[in-house]
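Handout, section B. The chain below has 340 residues.
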Amino acid sequence: MTKHKNNILILAIESSCDDTSAAVMVDGRVRSNEVATQEMHRAFGGVVPELASRVHQEHITLVVDVALRHAGVQAKDLTAIAFTRGPGLMGSLLVGISFAKGLSIGLGIPLIGVNHMEAHVLAHFIDEPKPEFPFLCLTVSGGHTEIILVNSPLEMIRLGKTLDDAAGEAFDKTGKMLGLEYPAGPIIDQLAQKGEPRFSFPKPRIDGLDFSFSGLKTSILYFLRDRVNENPEFIEENLTDICTSVQETITDILIEKLVQASEKTGIREIAIAGGVSANRTLREKVTGASAKYGWNNYIPRLEYCTDNAAMIAMAGHFKYLAGRFTSLDAVPDVRLGIPG
């Protein structure tokens, strides 16, 4: 591809956890979005940070090369390099930022550090339809559960957050109790489509727009312990109904807070983002709430729900337009988040 002076060609790198991803965006449009997953973590029941960082080192050169080739772009054509600065695992972030710095120096082009959570929100601007400002975004993943007020691509305010565990963690820990493989969220979602919500679990009573899932995890643990003591085959005999009941409870908690946020702010432009936004029940409930409350809802394509470099590129594009670049002495920030 020939580089023109008016083109904005951004290579984005995402390495916050266990997926190595690279994407190329040209003038705000995704040309490629490649992801290399790390399946070996299943054997450990969760992501092993040291192993993740080592595998990122093995994957990153090839993933970037494939992204450039699929986009029809050469490295010399690039305008800027965007990368995930945080939050995430320190070792994994270091691999991505080091690679990005090397390219920036070698090509003589600017760096753009991106907040991973802001990128999840801005994934909604990759495809049509795109939300109008201001809008609310429920961002739900294995590490975060937040309600974000989005006033512009560069101005976001966190209205609510989890006080302990994230919704995605509640899914994964429940899966571990049920003997499911990691990550358990997608497996629970699949099994939940075949069951009935026959079991009830208490919902936390948290004022305002904050969340809590630690109590729910404990109640599920005690519920399973007591039932298994009565019948050792209880989980096996009722697996789909347990999954449905847990999924209904978690998604109800999320939707109830989202409704509160909409009523409190008067905003009816509603989006969801993050890995858990791929959950079918959550997507269905957002659609149902939209019909009930008159929302315009925005639900990302599945490939943009989980960690991916296209969303990093989208955030990088907005930062490029605003001239917000990152110095070469930048370091990963594992605590980076959206101010509240």
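Note. The chain has a mean pLDDT of 95. Compare this with the example in section A.
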